């Protein structure tokens, strides 16, 4: 039997062509009530000027769009027209430094140069703007119908200097506010916190000073706090300056230093003083949710890895090594971090289903959630091969196992209009068939994932694995679609 294990290079093989069409190869039916648009972002190509990129974080951002209405799905994909992308398609060799890729031309060509903004990590629709996010720099705004790039967006000048704006903002559906942070390395390493109001106006909220240059990817939100659970991923100064002066990649300058432990920072939404706690070292990238419980504890669910940073980073490394050298089973374990009112921290792994890309019904952000969903890995797989639904109330997990060689991207939840139950809605995810190098859009009834997809729309091409995306009830009108019904 052919497995994805001996066919590793199709996972991130590029999609250079930009498509517009109505998906017409369909199994099942698109639910009539499911209207809206799913946007996704991820690396669409893994070379620049013919030079292979060194890390999947470096690939040029490519948006894909699934516009769903009247029983049909229209697909469109477009590269984000960043400077990196525009130069990369005409240059000889890599035109810029990236996080894990050096520019051609040796030391002088790399010293004191920041990684290029490749706008590849996530995409959000907020206050009427479609923004591609990349955590090292400013968002990039795109037209929500055509995916035409409008340019970098700095919130009316409020994002200063590099304008780092993380790829994991969180929403409070009661207030319409969005919260996010940016990682600043100089002059003092810190996390700068932001609040964006319902109208899209950004203001600074506070900051978390870091003991030195560190890496932090995600955050949580409760009714009271922005919550950071910062793993001990540090840039030792000699490595940090080595990277800055072009002696090594930025990504290779990160070390996991267990002795630093995990730092928890609670930044009050009302502008009060930040509270800091320290606990045992953990290795994680993503949060499932955070909330204040009925006792006043702050509860955060993360995916905790039983692996070294070298193993995890190796799994994330570039196409030349990805999957070939990885020996680490895919995913982290759902883990609850609880901070009591008195500051006591407890850590509890509460599920044995390994996975990544946790997703919830975003109406539950900042409040207790019963369910979350994962791209899961069964049987010690090195790749995601299943969709999992975890029930926090019963501890039960439900799985849908994809056929051999099929890799699910992150799943997106879309609530059914008028739903009163948390899991009343649909789970929408592209799935790559890594053996045949094709892809499809799978849609599940979130209440019954074990029953299998209610809809599979076969794409006319493959789709390299993407990182993060969003759903909006706004139906995009992709001009130029080749067919309508
Ligand atoms: Fe992420």
UniProtKB/TrEMBL annotation:
<keyword id="KW-0223">Dioxygenase</keyword>
<feature type="binding site">
    <location>
        <position position="468"/>
    </location>
    <ligand>
        <name>Fe cation</name>
    </ligand>
</feature>
<feature type="binding site">
    <location>
        <position position="217"/>
    </location>
    <ligand>
        <name>Fe cation</name>
    </ligand>
</feature>
<keyword id="KW-0408">Iron</keyword>
<feature type="binding site">
    <location>
        <position position="168"/>
    </location>
    <ligand>
        <name>Fe cation</name>
    </ligand>
</feature>
<dbReference type="Pfam" id="PF03055">
    <property type="entry name" value="RPE65"/>
</dbReference>
<feature type="binding site">
    <location>
        <position position="286"/>
    </location>
    <ligand>
        <name>Fe cation</name>
    </ligand>
</feature>
<keyword id="KW-0560">Oxidoreductase</keyword>
<dbReference type="GO" id="GO:0046872">
    <property type="term" value="F:metal ion binding"/>
</dbReference>
<comment type="similarity">
    <text>Belongs to the carotenoid oxygenase family.</text>
</comment>
<dbReference type="InterPro" id="IPR004294">
    <property type="entry name" value="Carotenoid_Oase"/>
</dbReference>
<dbReference type="GO" id="GO:0010436">
    <property type="term" value="F:carotenoid dioxygenase activity"/>
</dbReference>
<keyword id="KW-0479">Metal-binding</keyword>
<protein>
    <recommendedName>
        <fullName>Dioxygenase</fullName>
        <ecNumber>1.13.11.-</ecNumber>
    </recommendedName>
</protein>
<dbReference type="GO" id="GO:0016121">
    <property type="term" value="P:carotene catabolic process"/>
</dbReference>
């Amino acid at each position: 039997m052919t497995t994805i294990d001996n066919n590793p290079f199709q996972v991130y093989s590029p999609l250079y062509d930009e498509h517009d069409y109505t998906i017409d190869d369909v199994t099942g039916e698109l639910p009539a009530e499911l209207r809206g648009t799913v946007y996704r972002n991820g690396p669409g190509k893994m070379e620049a000027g013919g030079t292979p990129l060194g890390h999947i974080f470096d690939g040029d951002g490519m948006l894909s769009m699934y516009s769903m209405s009247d029983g049909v799905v229209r697909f469109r994909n477009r590269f984000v027209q960043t400077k990196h992308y525009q130069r990369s398609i005409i240059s000889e060799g890599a035109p810029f430094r990236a996080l894990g890729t050096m520019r051609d031309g040796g030391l002088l060509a790399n010293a004191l140069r920041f990684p290029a903004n490749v706008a590849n990590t996530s995409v959000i629709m907020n206050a009427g703007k479609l923004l591609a996010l990349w955590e090292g720099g400013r968002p990039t705004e795109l037209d929500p119908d055509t995916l035409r790039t409008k340019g970098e967006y700095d919130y009316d000048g409020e994002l200063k200097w590099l304008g780092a704006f993380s790829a994991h903002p969180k929403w409070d559906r009661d207030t319409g506010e969005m919260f996010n942070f940016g990682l600043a390395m100089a002059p003092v390493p810190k996390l700068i916190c932001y609040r964006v109001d319902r109208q899209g106006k950004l203001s600074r909220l506070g900051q978390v000073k870091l003991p030195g240059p560190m890496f932090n990817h995600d955050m949580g939100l409760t009714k009271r706090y922005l919550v950071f659970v910062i793993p001990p991923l540090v840039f030792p100064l000699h490595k940090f300056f080595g990277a800055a002066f072009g002696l090594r990649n930025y990504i290779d300058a990160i070390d996991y230093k267990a002795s630093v432990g995990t730092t928890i920072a609670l930044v009050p939404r009302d502008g009060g003083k930040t509270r800091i706690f320290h606990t045992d070292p953990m290795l994680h990238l993503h949060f499932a949710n955070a909330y204040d419980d009925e006792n006043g504890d702050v509860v955060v669910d993360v995916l905790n890895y039983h692996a070294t940073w070298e193993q995890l980073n190796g799994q994330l490394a570039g196409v030349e090594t990805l999957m070939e050298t990885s020996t680490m089973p895919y995913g982290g374990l759902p883990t609850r971090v609880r901070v009591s009112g008195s500051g006591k921290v407890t850590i509890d792994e509460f599920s044995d289903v390994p996975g990544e890309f946790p997703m919830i019904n975003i109406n539950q952000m900042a409040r207790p959630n019963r369910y979350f969903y994962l791209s899961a890995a069964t049987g010690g797989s090195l790749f995601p091969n299943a969709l999992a639904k975890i029930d926090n109330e019963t501890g039960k997990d439900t799985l849908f196992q994809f056929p051999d060689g099929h890799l699910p991207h992150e799943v997106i939840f879309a609530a059914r209009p008028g739903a009163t139950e948390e899991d009343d809605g649909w789970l929408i995810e592209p799935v790559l068939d890594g053996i045949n190098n094709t892809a499809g859009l799978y849609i599940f009834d979130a209440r019954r994932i074990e029953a299998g997809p209610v809809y599979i729309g076969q794409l006319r091409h493959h789709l390299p694995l993407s990182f993060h995306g969003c759903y909006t009830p706004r139906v995009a009108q992709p001009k130029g679609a080749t067919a309508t019904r």
